[in-house]
Amino acid sequence: MESDFRVISAARQTNLVEQPSPRELIDDVYASDVLTLDDLRSRLSKPVFRSLQSTIERGTPVDAGIADTVALAMKNWAMERGASHYTHWFQPLTGSTAEKHDSFLSPMGDGKVMSAFGGSELLQAEPDASSFPSGGLRATFEARGYTVWDPTSPAFILRHSGGATLCIPAIFASWNGEALDQKTPLLRSTEALNRAVVPALRLFGASEGTRVISTLGAEQEYFLIAEEFYYQRPDLMMAGRTLFGAKPPRGQELEDHYFGNIPDRVLTFMSDAESQLYALGIPIKTRHKEVAPGQFELAPIFEESNVAADHQQLTMQVMQSTARRHGLVALLHEKPFAGMNGSGKHCNWSMSTDAGENLLEPGDTPHENLQFLFFCSAVIKAVDDHQDLLRISVASASNDHRLGAQEAPPAIISMFFGSELTEIFERLESGVGGRGERKGLLGMGSPVLPHIPRHAGDRNRTSPFAFTGNKFEFRAPGSSQSISLPVTMLNVIVADAVTELTGQLQARLDAGTDLDKAVGEIVRETYTQHKRILFNGDGYDEAWHREAEQERGLLNLRTSLDAYPQLTSEKNVALFERHQVLDARELEARQEIMFDIYFKTVNIEGELTETIAQSVLLPNTLAYLRDLYASGQSLAVKGLISELETLNDALYQALQELRTQNAELGGESAHEKAFHLRDNVLPAMLKVRRAADELEKLVSDEHWKLPTYRQMLFVK
Ligand code: ADP
Ligand code: MG
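^ thats the input. predicted complex w/ adenosine-5'-diphosphate below
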C-alpha cells in the first residue's frame, strides 16, 4: 500500500551529524561566531573601545568618528572566520528578518581588488525599501528607507554550506525617520522604561547612574514532522498549517507526551540546532516534549530584551534550516493541526538594573519587599489599563486559531498571581496583619512587612499573564511571531504605570509621609482599583468569560480584527507619544500592515482550501467510488457508496460556496477585505474542511493522497 511506504520512508533514520563534545560546546563553540565585547577590546585602541562600550552599555550616541576603525576590526574578525560578505540584518514589519549581502570586495582602480569595509557602510545602508511593508509611510514622502547599525546587539556570523556572512544588527527607518521595523520601537520602549523606572528606584535609594533594562526569555514551542509528509501537503507548504485533516483516534488523550522521552532522531536534530545556536551566543537551556504528539519546546536563558529579540529570530531561523538536515520540518505555526495543542511563545519578562538586580524578585528584607510590591502594583495597573495593547501585540490570523483552545490562554487578558501573593495583596488592602499575628503592615505605621514567598508555584496554563515567582510570563504570544511587539507593549505600559505611581509617591513624600507608609497606601489603592484584572481560576470556564465581561468589565477582543482597531485609539496614541515610542502616523501604519497581513494570510488559505479540495480531495473520492462501483453489490459496498456519495455531494456544495466567497472582495479597503475573510471566507473554508475530514475517514488510504494526522504526527 502506497501510504504505508510513505510512512516507512518518513520514519527512516537520518545520518548522524558530527557533534562537538560537551566541553568543546561550552569552552570553544559558545559565542564563537559572535563579535563580543572581549573580541572588540582586543582589536580596538583603548579610547575607541571605551567610546563604543559606553554606547553599548550606557546608551550614549555612537561616535561616527570611530566607525572606520570599528568597521576594519569587524571586517578582519569576520574574514578570519570565513565571511566573504556583510549585511545589515534587520526586522521589517513582515515579522521575519531581512538581509542584503554585499561582498567585502572593492576595486582599486587598476583592475585589481582588495577587501574593504568602511565606517559609512557600517553605520548606514539603503536596502530597497519599496519591497517591505510600510503601511503607507513612504508613499507620502519618499520611497526610500535606510538601515542603521544597532551597536547594542552584537554582530555575528551566519554560516551556510558555501560560506559565511557578517551580520550587523540594524534598525530600519524611512527617510524622514519613521520606524519601519520591529526593533526601533523596542529600543525606544527600553529607553522609556529606563526613563520611568530610574526615578522610582532613586526614591527607594538606588545610587546615581543606575540604569534599567527589561529582560526576556522566550520559550519556543514547535512541531516536527517528516519532510516527506511536508512535500505532500500543499497547505503546510504554503500556509504553514493543515487546512484539512481529521483528528486521529489517538490524540492528546493519553497525556503521555508532555515531558516524555525524546525520540533519538529528534534529539539529534535538537543537539545539532543547539550547537549552532551556541555558536551564535544564544544561551539555549531547556528542551522537552510538549503536550501534543510531535510537539516540542526549546527555551533559552533570559537576556536583555533587544538582544533576546534578535536571538529569538535567529533561533527560529536555525531551527527551521537545521530540521531539513535531519529530514524533518519544524512547523512554527500557532495551530498547524486543528484539535491539537497549539504552539505559543511564552515571553518571560522582567525589569533589571544594570547591576543585575531583578526588580520583580521578592527580597529578603522589608525594604526590598516594599520596592517589589511597588513594581508589582505598577504591572497590575499597566495590564488592567492596557489589556487592549497586550491583546493587539499577539493578534494574528494564525494565533486566532490558538487562543482559547486546547491549553492556550483565552483572548481575555487577565493576570494570575497565585494564591499566596494574592493573599498578601488582599491583606494589605484590608489592613489585616501579616501572617495573622502581627498588625501594622505597610502603611499601618510599622515597617514590618509580610514575608513574600519566593517562587510561588504556578502551573495555571490557561492564564495569559502569570507571575511566576520573579518574573511575569506572558503566554498569549504565538509561536511564529516576533517577540518585539509584545515586549515593546510591556515596556511602554509598565513605564507609564511606574511614572504615574512614582508621581504619587513623590507627592506623598513631599508631604512628609514615610516611604513605607506612602508605598503602602499606593499599593493598596492601586490594588483596589485594578484587582479586577487578577484571576486565578480556569480561563476556559464559560462562567469566567461571562464574569470577565459582564461583572468585571474586562475586554474580550475575540479575534485579531476586533483587536487591531484599538491600536490607534486616543488613549493609545497619547500613551505612545508620551513615551516617544511611536507617533500617530507610525501607529496607523502598523495597524494598516496588521490588517494587510491578516488579509493576505487568510486570502491564501481560502484559495488553497478551494484548490486542494477541488484538485485533490474530490478526485480522490471519485477514484475510490469508481473502484467501489466495480466491486460488486455487497451490503458493505452499497452502504459505503451511499455514504461517500452523500458526503462528496456535501463537499461539492461547500466548495461552491467557498468559491463564491473567495471571488468576493468584501470592499475596497484592507479593513473591509479582512472582515469579509473573517466573516465569510473562514466559515466557508470550515464547511469544506468538515466534509473533507469526514471523507478522509471513509476513503481508503490508497486513494486519499493527503497524508493524515495519524501518519504525520506519530512517525518518530
Ligand atoms: P519556569 O519554571 O517558571 O518556567 P524557568 O526558570 O524555567 O521558569 O524560566 C523559564 C524562562 O524564563 C527561561 O527562559 C528563563 O530564562 C526565563 N526567565 C527567568 N528569569 C527571568 C527574568 N528575570 N527575566 C526574564 N526572563 C526570565
Ligand atoms: Mg512555560
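Confidence is low (pLDDT under 50) at residues 433-448.
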